[in-house]
Amino acid sequence: MKTENILEITRTNTNISEEKRAALKEQIFKYLCFFATILPLCLLAWLLADTFIRGFSRLNLDFILGLPSRFAHKAGILPGLVGTLSLMLLTTLIAIPLGICAAVYLEEYAKESWLKKTIELNVSNLAGVPSIIYGLLGLELFVRLLNLGPSLLAGALTMSLLILPVIITSTRESLKTVPNHLREAGFALGASKLSVIRRVVLPLAMSQIITGAILSISRAIGESAPLIVIGAATYLAFVPLGLLGEFSALPLQIFHWVERPQAAFVDNAAAAIIVLLIILAIFNGGAAYLRQYHEKKRGCL
Amino acid sequence: MNYYVGKREKILRRLIELGLLASGVLSILITIGVLYVLISKTWLFFEQVSFRAFFLDTVWTPLFSSQRFGIWALVLGSMLVTGVAMLTAGPLGILAAIYMSEFASSKTRKSLKPLLEILAGIPTVVYGYFALTMVTPAMLPLIPGLNSFNALSPGLVMGLMLIPTVSSLCEDALYKTPRELKEAAYSLGARKLSTIFLVTLPYARSTIIAALFLAFGRAIGETMIVAIAAGMKANFTLDIREPIQTMTAYIVQVSMGDTPQDSIEYLTIFTVGAMLFIITFIFHAGSKIILRSKFKAKT
């Protein structure tokens, strides 16, 4: 009787301790996972905070509106800033209409055929091609073959090729969200395919298309490798004007300063990074706002 | 409205349709362009340099007077940085995905996801700055023998950048594990931990592998971080404390200098580009094939 009791007690005891151990294990694993999620964010916060502190003292109007210089404290980012903004504008004008047209073709017109399959496969593969390879294509095609030189236009065309697959994919996703019965309602009223696309599909999908376009343009803003390959200047002592002239861009200017051994130039790089990140934040914030607006609108539909 | 369609209108419509078709076909032309440029220049390169000198050598010095073209020095450099990046992004990305899909409340999940996505949105030149001016100096006192240009810190920073690439795909897959499967495990008395390891993770396995492949392809093609922080010295070594050069960084190095057109130095960047293209293509296509076969198996 007594021994049985003891056995019973030890058994429950081990059960409890096993239970506890399992619960503890689970807790530990949970905190490990939590740590893995938080750690990258904390690291990023540290890196950004340090950069902001370092660059903040250099950030003033003279810096933004100044030209690069041999003297770190006199140098500014105007050529890079103007280059980035004009590159952005040109890339938008070239890539977005083309991307939307291609997406409309694939979603609305193309029948299931080898051509559609080939284009789809091709777009998905292009998304995996490293950006520097687009630089090599741009170097041979635009800079040499079309004889544009390392110009703003060549840079914008190269960037357009780079983001085209991204725009096509995101636009297709937006077109897919337009319910089919709305298209059919249009057809039932006797509208042609083209007018259904123009009057029904595109207006409904537009804010989502624009969101995707903004995100892909913001990818182009931060990109520097293809621009270096086509021969864009990392140091430009004048403001680039004109499509066929030399140009620079903000990321290239940052690259140039980071490479300099003097600490004062690294401060400049930090300040230029702040400007670049602010531009990107504006873009991404705009995209997020548009997405919310779109969700609200869809809610009413 | 459209009872009668005039001839001009018909032609206009046809033209618009053709325009749409043309922009669809443009993407194929891009691929053809890339392939043509890489292949034609690589061809010219191999007219001057033998396959032997390219594939059976480990010294890469095309810019020196004693030129040697052993591509493995660059490939190993790329692999080294990528290895560090994958060892960082792989475990952290998968664990973060498990946290968000299994442990976090839906509210936390919704706010954590976009926060992690920020990591992927930061320009790579900024990551290069982080690696060179902050991560390397922070590690110099900790790791004896660490060079101020090395493979370790660009690898770590690249890993940080790739975390969302791994975590977002994995998280989707984990989250979509059918409820019945999890509940079956619970009803058999399994704890959450064993359910995660025996049900959810195996279910999402192929997506996780696909995500890792995708991240690997990106890491190999990543340029600016290594160009800034890894040093520009082709080095056939497995020591991550040493300066190395990757395929991408070599292309940048040549592009920054003045090399005469169609000289052998100029041709090397296309040959290296072709090598890079092949490697990234294998990993990207591998990832897509895994994802597609999984999709097919489910339907």
Question: Would you kindly provide a written description of the structure presented here, covering whatever features stand out?
Answer:
The complex is a heterodimer of chains A (301) and B (299). Chain A has 301 residues and is mainly α. Chain A has 11 helices and no strands. The longest helix of chain A has 55 residues, at 2-56. Chain A has helices spanning 2-56, 61-64, 78-109, 114-126, 131-145, 152-176, 180-188, 193-222, 225-230, 250-259, 263-300. Chain B has 299 residues and is an all-alpha fold. Chain B folds into 2 domains: 7-48; 72-298, Orthogonal Bundle (MetI-like fold), CATH 1.10.3720.10. At the A-B interface, helix 1, helix 3, helix 4, helix 5 and helix 6 of A face helix 1, helix 3, helix 4, helix 5 and helix 8 of B.
Spell out the blueprint of helices and strands.
The complex is a heterodimer of chains A (about 300) and B (about 300).
Chain A: H1 2-56, H2 61-64, H3 78-109, H4 114-126, H5 131-145, H6 152-176, H7 180-188, H8 193-222, H9 225-230, H10 250-259, H11 263-300
Helix pairs in contact in A: 1-11, 3-6, 3-8, 3-10, 5-6, 6-8, 7-8, 8-11, 10-11
Chain B: H1 7-48, H2 51-55, H3 72-103, H4 106-121, H5 124-139, H6 152-175, H7 179-187, H8 192-221, H9 224-229, H10 247-256, H11 264-298
Helix pairs in contact in B: 1-11, 3-6, 3-8, 4-6, 5-6, 6-8, 7-8, 8-11, 10-11
